[in-house]
Amino acid sequence: MPQSAEKILDHAPLFREPEYRQMLAEKKLNFECPHQDQVVTDQREFTETWEYREKNFAREALVINPAKACQPLGAVFAATGFERTMPFVHGSQGCVAYYRSHLSRHFKEPASAVSSSMTEDAAVFGGLKNMVDGLANTYKLYDPKMIAVSTTCMAEVIGDDLHSFIENAKEEGSVPRDFDVPFAHTPAFVGSHVDGYDVTVKGILEHFWKGQERTEALGTINIIPGFDGFCVGNNRELKRLLDLMGVSYTFIQDASDQFDTPSDGEYRMYDGGTKIQDVKNALNAEATLSLQHYNTRKTLEYCEEVGQATASFHYPLGVQATDEFLVEVSAISGKEIPEAIRLERGRLVDAMADSQSWLHGRKYALYGDPDFVHAMARFIMETGGEPTHCLATNGTKAWEDEMKELLASSPFGKEAQVWAGKDLWAMRSLLFTEPVDLLIGNSYGKYLERDTGTPLIRLMFPIFDRHHHHRFALMGYQGGLRVLTTILDKIFDKLDRETSETGVTDYSYDLTR
Amino acid sequence: MSLEYENDGALHAKLIEEVLSQYPDKTAKRRKKHLNVAKSGDEAGEEGEVLSECDVKSNIKSIPGVMTIRGCAYAGSKGVVWGPVKDMVHISHGPVGCGQYSWSQRRNYYVGTTGIDTFGTMQFTSDFQEKDIVFGGDKKLEQIIDEIEELFPLNKGITVQSECPIGLIGDDTEAVSRKKAKEIEKTIVPVRCEGFRGVSQSLGHHIANDAIRDWVFEKRDVEFEGGPYDVNVVGDYNIGGDAWASRILLEEIGLRVVGNWSGDATLAEIERAPKAKLNLIHCYRSMNYICRHMEEKYGIAWMEYNFFGPSQIEASLRKIAKHFGPEIEEKTEKVIAKYRPLIEEVIAKYRPRLEGNTVMLYVGGLRPRHVITAYEDLGMVIVGTGYEFGHNDDYQRTAHYVKNGTLIYDDVTGYELEKFIEGVRPNLVGSGIKEKYPVQKMGIPFRQMHSWDYSGPYHGYDGFAVFARDVDLAINNPVWGLFEAPWKRRPSHGRAMAAE
């Protein structure tokens, strides 16, 4: 009997015990009708070949292990970044259970959102009644300052009209007439979570800005961070930098406190977020800057329409991307970049110089949201590494072109390949046929690490199987330092593991590296 | 080992009144029917008899805007019933999200080479785009099936798990499945589990069960020599290895588990199920339908059992053994005796650390009742419980487990659960990932009772030891004593015991 009260074995060791191994072997043999081992081995080896890669890339319809989610997830995340705002998703209710779970598993935090719980009758007659009742219940129970409505694909397919439904609900007294209910249509069969983020932020801005007089406040800046699993660390780091510069700024959408509430005995359903009044005032800003271009294309268009200057970045991380961001902020705000920030920059460069011998010439595969991949590729090249594979399942043709331009700008990008719209099963082939030293992505990458032996560095949403990384910044010079250290740790750990065999390889098990 | 205790029914009734007073009138009226205080389980009648005092309305539509914790039919089919069948490819047919959020989240363990002969922790999606909505996705589905065959030739079959749009745009996944099954000479199962169907996961279970009946049974010749002690384990999804910790006991008492549904299952195990002698059903809610069908069609008896905690394991083993007669009964007594020292040691170690601690549960399937006695085996007290998607027959069965005064909540809303927990302040809450962090912020220990909080197994004797350890480490961790800053400190309610 493997189990004992003294040393209790859970799944990881328990099923390695002989009783269980035998039981599972017999189950397979007697009841599973398995393929013969050789057949399985042959097929596994075949999947590592160029021939399989070609078949894999010839796929047109089937998507396997994509690195993207659907629009309403972005909508829920976006809504969460405003003061006392309840995300309200109109459509089937199971979707909302999924969004909440997905966000909670990454942030290890509560994630509140409600559904209008449409079922078959609503599919036939439309979900107006669900909207009317739903808004009334949410308003009464959860005491929000704003309810931000988005849609699941079910409501989109049947063509529910959010604008008129919300008007109707207000007529019927679900919420007070002047209560803020911005909305955005977020069909899951268009774009991805980054687009859901975009249209939701745009919907909120339109709700507050439409028909309002704009009085430009020179030197003030709006910052839109985009869908960011590291918002907790990143937003705080950027605010610190902006405060150091003395810039007058407003974060439009800021989930950093919402997804990092303290444990002190009180459950805060709402915490932090952009104040409603600040959203209103933000109309007057001189400029709106987006930290993630592909998360804000429509929102920035709207900002331009109202007369603001705009600029967008690709997840400013590392040296030059942070430089560009700060220079732009300085130009608009008229504030100089203080010496303290220049010293920080110097410290990041110092660290990169100290470690360059371990980084130069390393090959990487990167995947994730379009702006993140752009940022990582750029930083990798700054360290002398080569971003061999750059993949974004939700990357567009425009992204592909922009990536190619970036890669062409450096000798370290010469060999790099850009994979827009491809998934992680495609990446699996690439890691066999054109292998790299390191893989940078999210938790889903662990299956690639297992199958191909490429060490995985988790720097992108979602991270389910490592804790608290999202609490630290990746953006800015400080963030760059963290990314650098994370990469180096992976390299050194791997080298130590490979050289630790006593009397065989441990001559290279160096004390100082 | 059942504990004698009574809950504070008056407090619970007051809490119900309080939460209802916060709803709009119309909603309060509807929610009132889902909340109740149980009358003593000891007074429960024969199985099937409705206890009005424990009775709540269930399996009806959730109310918009209240933050129900429920999922959808797709979650019930792909996430629960079909997803774990390891040698088939399960297509999440529709937009990308559903498959993405449910990817690898249920922890139904299996052994196999993923991507080669097994496909459990993968996300296959047709990733619907606008043009697929406009022009329909049947052609795309055909192409997807061809591509699966090309890239994953060792798959034993394919299921098509319909997401919301499929049923709305009028796709005929049945016709595609029939046509392609003939072409590739494999089982293809279309499952009409669009998320808007029904009121919760529950209808998805039912539809998935029906799909087994209609698209798997009697579709291919099954060559299998049956034996006198053949059983199917039905409704064990092998979360953290649960089904393995159960199988080892069933084999030890002399039974032959010819199929496990659906944790670590293969298509073959489903196909030959009608040849077994008895269906042992753990999660009644999600798989009773197919058991009833097998009873009617093939005359296979079915029996509910409970492998959580030693009291129920013993009782269940004996009940199962009785069905097979003296030879198995004799072996069963030996197995019970063999594990008894382990269980006594586990209880001796943990009961003093957990005695009298109160627990609130809110889960799905069988767990809101089945785990109660496992806690009681550790000296703990269940003060409240409820089902995400239970039916009337679940609440009837619950009456046998709960004590007088227990707070009962069906399809609880986020608001209600928070207020109930605040009012009761139990020592432990067992629920899901969406509930975990709000509860912990209140300073109340929590265990996820869907995923076993990334631990497990919890079934069987081996699993009970893990369960006891996990409950102890949740409740007796020192972090609960650190919540208050010393300059703000009220009389302390945190306590901790070092691990032993």
From TrEMBL, chain A:
<dbReference type="InterPro" id="IPR005976">
    <property type="entry name" value="Nase_Mo-Fe_CF_bsu"/>
</dbReference>
<keyword id="KW-0067">ATP-binding</keyword>
<dbReference type="InterPro" id="IPR000318">
    <property type="entry name" value="Nase_comp1_CS"/>
</dbReference>
<keyword id="KW-0547">Nucleotide-binding</keyword>
<keyword id="KW-0560">Oxidoreductase</keyword>
<protein>
    <recommendedName>
        <fullName>Nitrogenase molybdenum-iron protein beta chain</fullName>
        <ecNumber>1.18.6.1</ecNumber>
    </recommendedName>
</protein>
<keyword id="KW-0408">Iron</keyword>
<comment type="function">
    <text>This molybdenum-iron protein is part of the nitrogenase complex that catalyzes the key enzymatic reactions in nitrogen fixation.</text>
</comment>
<feature type="domain" description="Nitrogenase molybdenum-iron protein beta chain N-terminal">
    <location>
        <begin position="1"/>
        <end position="56"/>
    </location>
</feature>
<dbReference type="Pfam" id="PF11844">
    <property type="entry name" value="DUF3364"/>
</dbReference>
<dbReference type="GO" id="GO:0051536">
    <property type="term" value="F:iron-sulfur cluster binding"/>
</dbReference>
<comment type="similarity">
    <text>Belongs to the NifD/NifK/NifE/NifN family.</text>
</comment>
<dbReference type="InterPro" id="IPR024564">
    <property type="entry name" value="Nase_Mo-Fe_CF_bsu_N"/>
</dbReference>
<dbReference type="GO" id="GO:0046872">
    <property type="term" value="F:metal ion binding"/>
</dbReference>
<dbReference type="GO" id="GO:0016163">
    <property type="term" value="F:nitrogenase activity"/>
</dbReference>
<dbReference type="GO" id="GO:0005524">
    <property type="term" value="F:ATP binding"/>
</dbReference>
<dbReference type="InterPro" id="IPR050152">
    <property type="entry name" value="ChlB/BchB/BchZ"/>
</dbReference>
<keyword id="KW-0479">Metal-binding</keyword>
<keyword id="KW-0535">Nitrogen fixation</keyword>
<keyword id="KW-0411">Iron-sulfur</keyword>
<dbReference type="Pfam" id="PF00148">
    <property type="entry name" value="Oxidored_nitro"/>
</dbReference>
<dbReference type="InterPro" id="IPR000510">
    <property type="entry name" value="Nase/OxRdtase_comp1"/>
</dbReference>
<comment type="subunit">
    <text>Tetramer of two alpha and two beta chains. Forms complex with the iron protein (nitrogenase component 2).</text>
</comment>
<dbReference type="GO" id="GO:0016612">
    <property type="term" value="C:molybdenum-iron nitrogenase complex"/>
</dbReference>
<feature type="domain" description="Nitrogenase/oxidoreductase component 1">
    <location>
        <begin position="70"/>
        <end position="490"/>
    </location>
</feature>
